[in-house]
Amino acid sequence: MLKGIKLKLYPNRTQQNQLEQMFGNDRFVWNQMLAMMNERYQNNKALPFFRQVQAELSA
C-alpha cells in the first residue's frame, strides 16, 4: 500500500536559496534528458533503456 505524507517547511533565506538552486538544477537535468529522449525517438523510433540513460547521467 502506498501512503503519502504531507509536510510544510519553513526554511530560512539561506535554505530557501539552496532549495531553489537544487530544484533549478533538477529542472535543467530533466529538460536535457527529455530533449535527448525526444531526439532519439524522432531519429530511431525507439527509446533507450533505463540503464543507458542512467549511465549517461553519471558520465
From TrEMBL:
<protein>
    <submittedName>
        <fullName>Transposase</fullName>
    </submittedName>
</protein>
<dbReference type="InterPro" id="IPR021027">
    <property type="entry name" value="Transposase_put_HTH"/>
</dbReference>
<feature type="domain" description="Transposase putative helix-turn-helix">
    <location>
        <begin position="1"/>
        <end position="45"/>
    </location>
</feature>
<dbReference type="Pfam" id="PF12323">
    <property type="entry name" value="HTH_OrfB_IS605"/>
</dbReference>
